[in-house]
Amino acid sequence: MRKVLPYVVSGLVFLVALALVQPEPTFPMIVAARNLPAGHTIVDGDLAIEEVPERLLPADAITSMDEAIGKMLAVDRERGDSIRGANLGEPVKLQPDERAIAVHVTDSAGMAGLIRPGDTVGVVASLRVDDVSGTTGTFTKATIEPVRVLYISPDFQALDPDYEPQVDEITGLQRTETREQEGTVMLAVSTDTLAILYDFKGSDSPNVERTVNALELLAALDSSSDAVLSLYLVPEGAVDFSTSGLYLPDLVVTPGPTPTTTPTPQGYQPTPDIIEEPTATPSEG
Length: 285
Hints:
Blueprint: H1 5-21, E1 26-32, E2 47-53, E3 98-106, E4 120-130, E5 136-152, E6 166-167, E7 174-175, E8 182-190, E9 193-198, E10 208-213, H2 214-223, E11 227-233, E12 246-247
Antiparallel strand pairs: 1-2, 3-8, 4-5, 4-11, 5-8, 5-12, 6-7, 9-10
């Protein structure tokens, strides 16, 4: 047994070393063979195939030229850039009175991959604030509506329900589709000033209005460590609405204090009624 053990150990070491030196499995990825502008319809000669490790393959990477030829590019692609599913489609153009701005959102705040370029959304801002009483809480207010979605970072887009896992013919490994839990969404907002209304019709306080620029507001909220942005879908023909905003601590309601007896060393002693003594009057004499 002792004579065999060294050979067993050597064999295990050899297998581990062999696994370490073997090349990492690769998958084909379609890239641009030359500079391609947005709005260009892809034809033969526009594309090339590049082998990349699976860990570098984007979730929506196109792996067959047939998937891209005849499709229109929604964004510019330079030579060597990957051609991804998010890059295909009608280019979304800005109107003269619009500007594009990118904001960072998490999975739940970004509709969990539901939104797509061309959708109309609204923006809710949640801010961490300290009130005059020293209470710290979250204040949430619907701020901007409507704005158009221009672009979503590809790894943050919704998964394709018709996606079929692909198997590498050489390695036999299956590549599944994944998506990131946070990403960047580019929005088209108006350059006109925006009125944010605080509607206090449910109380005796007068309404308050703040006039801001949407670009400046989104940039300030996106860069603040105390603010989180959430997006919500806006339907076609949506009815306008206004709110007063929500301060989370105001939702905490507790019962008022109830009187309780205070024990004494001898137990509870009711307070005796105080009887006033009659005031003596001077006698006549």
